Structures are given as C-alpha cells and as structure tokens.
Amino acid sequence: MSLSPDLAAKAALARRLLARSAADHAPAVFTTSFGAEDMVVLDLIAGHDDENNAVLGTIGLATLDTGRLPDQTYQVWQRAVQRYRRKIESYFPEAPAVEQFVRVHGINAFYDSLAERKTCCHIRKVEPLARALAGRGAWITGMRRAQSTTRSDLAVEAWDDEHRLTKISPLADWSEEDTWNYLRARDVPVNALHAMGYPSIGCAPCTRAITAGEDVRAGRWWWESADAKECGLHAKADDNVLAQPA
Ligand code: SF4
C-alpha cells in the first residue's frame, strides 16, 4: 500500500518542517510515548531515505519511562529501535522522589485526589521531561489539534515559555484518518493496545479502553473532568496542571 497523493504531500511538508526545525533550532529533540502519532513522527524522522536524512539524524530521540507503562508500550519501543536503528534515550523518574511519594501516599494514590495525581505525574513525567528538554532548542511532539479540547488551538510551531524552546508539532493539522492511513501504508510498528480500544495510551493504571462515541482521550484519567486531560507535559498556562507529561 502506498500513501495517497494528499497524504504524501502532508508527509513531505512535515519532513521539511522537521528538517528546518532541526537546522534552525539545534539541538532538537523528539519525545515519544510510542503512541500512533508519535510513531508517525518517528517514521518521518528516521524512516525515509532522502536529502533530509543528515539533518534529521541530528534530532535526538527521547522517551519518559514512568515505571508504570503497559507492557505493550515496552514491546513497541523495542520494535521501534529494531526498525529504525536509532538510539532512544530513556528518562526515568528520580528514585528517591518515587520512593517518598509511594511511602507516604501509597502505590496508587493518583486515584485518591487530583492533587495526588498531579504530584505523581510531576514526579514520573514532568521532572524527567525537564531533563530531556534541558539545553535543547526545539521540542518535537506528535500532538494533533483534533485529539482533545485542550489541543484545539495547537500551533505547528510556537515558543514554549515554560521550557524556553520552540515547540514543533508537525502533525497539528493531521486527522486521525491521516495518522492511521500513514501507519498502515508504511507498515509502521504500533502499540498493540490501539487494536484493543486504546486510542491514547499513557501509564497502565491511568489508561482504559474507550467505547464507540467517546472522546479519544476519554480513557486517560477517566475519573477526572474532560477538561483536565493533560499530565502537564503539554499543559498550557493552566492552573489545573502544574507541569505533567502526556
Ligand atoms: S499517568 Fe498515572 S501513573 Fe502515570 S505519572 Fe500520571 S498519575 Fe502517575
């Protein structure tokens, strides 16, 4: 299967944006959670063979291993390394912070209150993300506007004041159909949970499958209000999110 002309044009545009960002804002880093959109971006960065390869090869690849990820995410992580032969740097939470939080609040405290959920996300995602982004000029993400109400005004390129770098979202105007057509056409590895009703995948205890008609992020922190479905990694100036990852 090959890409439709429209999707091939979108992919080419995204690769040019990535190449320009890597050159203009070096050093750039792409943080992946190995979800569907992130696998598209990884393939755009590392899966083609053309004149952009040299500059795209300078983009660092990083992931946040929260310690609570589903096994299927570790499996697709391994498949991605095998397919693209690129090093993906893992950022793990600070052990003393996790130990202290669990000791005081319990192993699944995120269900107890929004404050404890945010604290857990801060320890396991936000703080490691800050380390992954430190010293970078650009942060590349796989976010799309249509993914949630909190992302509806997402810009392709914007200054991120919190992290002091340029944030690049090459798939901002892609649809879910674009995403999956690209993945199928390019035979890109995907997280097995997607086929089990998980369009958005985070930590195992905080992600569930959704049913027909539910918002694609309804399975993330499903016990909270729909407007709070960010972990702080991609928070806007939002007092509901101190600073947590996707
Ligand atoms: S998604 Fe859940 S388990 Fe993961 S860091 Fe946030 S609260 Fe903790």
What can you tell me about this protein's structure?
- This protein is α/β, with parallel strands linked by helices.
- It has one domain (5-195): HUPs (Rossmann fold, 3-Layer(aba) Sandwich), CATH 3.40.50.
- Helices cover 37% and strands 9% of the residues.
- It contains 7 helices and 6 strands.
- The chain has helices spanning 5-24, 36-46, 53-56, 71-84, 95-105, 114-133, 176-186; strands at 28-31, 60-64, 89-91, 138-140, 157-160, 165-168.
- The protein has a 6-stranded mixed sheet with strand order 3-2-1-4-6-5.
- Helix 4 (71-84) links the parallel strand 2 (60-64) and strand 3 (89-91).
- Helix 2 crosses helix 7.
- The protein is globular and about 55 Å long.
- The model is unreliable at 236-246 (pLDDT under 50).
- Iron/sulfur cluster binds next to helix 6.
- How confident is the prediction overall: mean pLDDT? 91
Strand content: 5-15%
Structural class by SSE content: alpha/beta
How far from one another are the termini? Answer: 31 Å
The largest β sheet comes out as: 6 strands, mixed
Total DSSP E strands: 6
Query: The CATH topology, please?
Result: Rossmann fold
CATH class: Alpha Beta
Ligand kinds: iron/sulfur cluster
Short description:
With 246 residues, the protein is α/β, with parallel strands linked by helices. It is 37% helix and 9% strand. It has one domain: Rossmann fold (3-Layer(aba) Sandwich).
Which descriptors would you attach to this protein?
single chain, 246 residues, alpha/beta, Rossmann fold, disordered C terminus, binds iron/sulfur cluster
